[in-house]
């Protein structure tokens, strides 16, 4: 079903824009390579000591280096591989957080800690000094408010004046002395979904739905939760040998058991490294610590339709650290900093973007 079409070594970070079929790869030595279905271009001297990057709107890329941040602008109207690179005023910490209209990045320059607000074109708007909220911005809810967290609390705060809108005590909410929250908060239609559990009390776990504006609890789904992900109006929580599903249209939950098929294949679902797309669950093996095997489970039939063991050169980790799936294309970043890219056999996409990887 899937075929390995590229293996890129020494990859520190990567990103992919499926709508443009553009892939960015940042090497450990700071060399950055950009690919799309028309061209590939290597940027080396301009972005020395780079450690992270992100794609933005309008063919713009933010690259963070040890002592500077760069903006890369593509000029597709001139030539597809023509770029301009210039240094930004503020040294930004990537990744940032995004609202509909703006980006927010932590910065620390000459002892001034805070957030830089940039618009969608990465143009400077304002500086927001710390403190903000409880411990800074965890995630933006909309253009005017953000979630901030503490040890056993989190709340909603105004971006305009920093005022508290609401705050939740997770001890009281879960009814347990030692609650932990999995910070995969899902914002949807003015609501926030999140999972709370207690390590010491197996019966104390639930996913909550709260009103984003007021913090009022709207629904509680007992014994449902994990590393939550949203796909087509359903929330999925994969874990070990099960897949729990919350149908947001009906409010009903169900748990699918795949014990026999996974046991026969000697596989476990790593809840932090899996993706639900269409009727498939793409996942990395490993109940706790991730391993070096990758598989696809057909959710409807309960069958493993493909699995692969990724060979790594490191002696310690030997695992898949990150997994992303875009329109059926799988990106698996291994612990030896090798990026493995799989595509569907016979896919026309394979001969476009992937043709530029030869010899890299």
Keywords:
mainly beta; 4-stranded antiparallel beta sheet; 3% helix; WD40/YVTN_repeat-like_dom_sf; Pyrrolo-quinoline quinone repeat domain-containing protein
Q: How would you describe this protein?
A:
It comes from Chitinophaga dinghuensis. InterPro entries: PQQ_rpt_dom, Quinoprotein_ADH-like_sf, WD40/YVTN_repeat-like_dom_sf. Residues 150-344 form the Pyrrolo-quinoline quinone repeat domain. The longest helix is centred in the last third of the chain and has 7 residues, at 259-265. Helix content is 3%, strand content 56%. It is mainly beta. It starts with a strand and ends in a 16-residue tail after the last strand. It has a four-stranded antiparallel β-sheet with strand order 1-32-31-30, with no helix packed on it. It is globular. It has a domain at 1-48.
Percent in strands: over 45%
Strand order of the largest sheet: 1-32-31-30
What ranges have pLDDT less than 50 throughout 5 or more consecutive residues? none
Helix % is under 10%
Which sheet architecture does the biggest sheet show?
4 strands, antiparallel
Give me the Rg, rounded.
Answer: 22 Å
Q: Which whole number gives the mean pLDDT?
A: 89
C-alpha geometry: globular
Q: What is the SS-derived class?
A: mainly beta
- Span of the ends, CA to CA: 25 Å
Helical segment count: 2
How many strand segments? 32
